[in-house]
Known about the structure:
2 copies of one chain form a homodimer. Chain A is an alpha/beta fold and about 375 residues long. Chain A folds into 2 domains: about 5-165, 3-Layer(aba) Sandwich (Rossmann fold); about 165-315 and about 345-369, Dihydrodipicolinate Reductase, domain 2 (2-Layer Sandwich), CATH 3.30.360. The first copy, chain A, has helices at about 5-10, 25-30, 50-60, 75-85, 115-130, 145-155, 170-180, 210, 215-230, 320-335, 345-365; strands at about 40-45, 65-70, 90-95, 110, 130-135, 160, 185-195, 235-245, 255-265, 270-275, 280-290, 290-295, 305-310, 310, 365-369. In chain A, the strands form 2 sheets. Chain A has a 9-stranded mixed sheet. The radius of gyration of chain A is 20 Å and the shape is globular. The relative contact order of chain A is 0.18.
Amino acid sequence: MSSRREFLEKLTVSAVSLPILYSPASVLAACDGQPYKGPVLRVAIMGLGSYGNRVARGMESCKRAKLVGVISGTPSKVIDWRKKYDIPEKNCYNYKNFDQVKNNPDIDAVYVITPNGLHCEQAIRVAKAGKHVICEKPMAINAEEGERMVKACKAAGVKLLVGYRMHFEPKTVEVIRMRKAGEFGKTKFFQGQSGFVIGDPTQWRLNPKLSGGGAMMDIGVYSINGSRYMLGEEPIWVTAQEVKTDSVKFKEGIDETITFQMGFPSGAIASCLSTYAMNNLDRFFLNGEKGFAEMQPSTGYGPIEGRTHKGKLTQPHITHQTLQMDGMAQLIFEGVQPIAPVDGEEGLKDLKIIDAIFLAAKTGKKVEL
Amino acid sequence: MSSRREFLEKLTVSAVSLPILYSPASVLAACDGQPYKGPVLRVAIMGLGSYGNRVARGMESCKRAKLVGVISGTPSKVIDWRKKYDIPEKNCYNYKNFDQVKNNPDIDAVYVITPNGLHCEQAIRVAKAGKHVICEKPMAINAEEGERMVKACKAAGVKLLVGYRMHFEPKTVEVIRMRKAGEFGKTKFFQGQSGFVIGDPTQWRLNPKLSGGGAMMDIGVYSINGSRYMLGEEPIWVTAQEVKTDSVKFKEGIDETITFQMGFPSGAIASCLSTYAMNNLDRFFLNGEKGFAEMQPSTGYGPIEGRTHKGKLTQPHITHQTLQMDGMAQLIFEGVQPIAPVDGEEGLKDLKIIDAIFLAAKTGKKVEL
Lengths: 369, 369
């Protein structure tokens, strides 16, 4: 039985993470070898679990973003992180006092990397403290929460960004570029398969209050988001079928396996699988009138591999979290948009689809969006 | 725009079709280089269209089956075939007089390769004439017809076999063998994608009376049948979603694109795509607890290509129709069953699922089987 981390790490090569950023306008600029002299996004990470650690490691290679603070309920972790990342004590907070970040001029943004069920309240508190919010996906556990987050950030005049690392990943960016350039012709079908066998039954991801759902919240969301950036349209209906073979491990409110389908205005369709009960499923397939793209793995942390009708995708693997954080800094400071949006509205669109999928699975009916 | 034939032929190599047969018990025997001295199944082909031609060519390499007669409504075709295959005039019939085959001791079986909507009546007439019936898939246009065919053949004491050529295809046989041997562990997911862009809008396949449906009848049935032989179970429910983008080409009663899902007693699920509107989709994927199989192309006439968790599938390509007809002869004469059934009951199971898919697509409801 593989753990979530093992699954996503499986294909990671310890490539030197070059300090190259990728966003449409700046690739060449970033590769010119000149030292970066622009503004740096000073980030505090909230939640020092395994993914928080991964983001911190990725940020070591960033040139536009820097880890400067932490928010954690575990003092021993704070001590470790302070040493490892040279973080001053004044930039360290816990879950009770982090509203005080508003008085800290040395922190620009907080990256919320806590269990899904905590995102909404925590993000709103960060926004009220006047700091930009970066929130791990899924942005929240339902659209109602997502809407409150979007509103709160708007009211506070801060950015709300969601950790859609694939929107900065070079092979993914290339496929989206090809689609936008019409190289696939009219896109007609997307298939997403997202799944692995989840391990430790005591983890927060299997606790419905903390996770808001099972495989769908964790990895099904990759197929949902992927269908949108691959097809370039917003779905107008969803249907879904749920299967549960282990109701001990997967309690009420924790989906084990859901197949779901989405219809799009052009007539395109998506057919996806989200599961915590099958090994190593990580495949995207886009089919158009003039060509196709096939990516496998499509969303893991390691090198994405893929091919299109034109041949193998050969863009370099760069640590996704490095690209994401540099790209988000560039978005915040220069307004440079990545090839697919990473803002709160984008996160909210996925949450609305998740709500609809859960409703469709429960009722057995097609749900219009 | 590719034609159906071009699609299915795409990967055919003109390999010498060795007179080797494949059925579980006889591979070694057939490869021993000894001349075959057993009984030969003497077959008349009904319907001399492009697939009839393909079967006839495949049979040239058979050692247990031989083309000895034709049934056609087109006298010029009969003349051509007589020359090409050295067929005596007394073994040639038309659609009016073919009941007289009952008085012909030189024909053992009739292979019905006519439009789907004609199979039922024609097969029953063949059965009543006392000849074994081999019927191209889909066996008929609905389960009610299929049941009548099964009954008629039983009453007449003749075999009813359906042209499931994949059940004799070496790589497919190997994957089924592996599944039966438990090499994939518990099988949990099957994905089938069957599609191509259909050409000529005047062909019988786009005429609902002759075809009984569109892509589903023609190629979706591969994913249906494949889900059953790959998972090794019978579905207990289906859901389906239909999308039509061209209602001129795809009239009422002709499905363009249907996504469908099937649930199985073990909790396994199948997620499939059947379409006449997308290029070159021909992929099977089977996922189990201990391994996987991926085949692409999975059902075309040319070499099947695939891999499993153990590596590339390297079984040889042998013309499917050769294997099928030799295997069917062996089934009829020796009772040797192929690795997955090819009888009327098997065809009927697929028809019941097709009926349920059409109902599910129409009503939007899950249909229990």
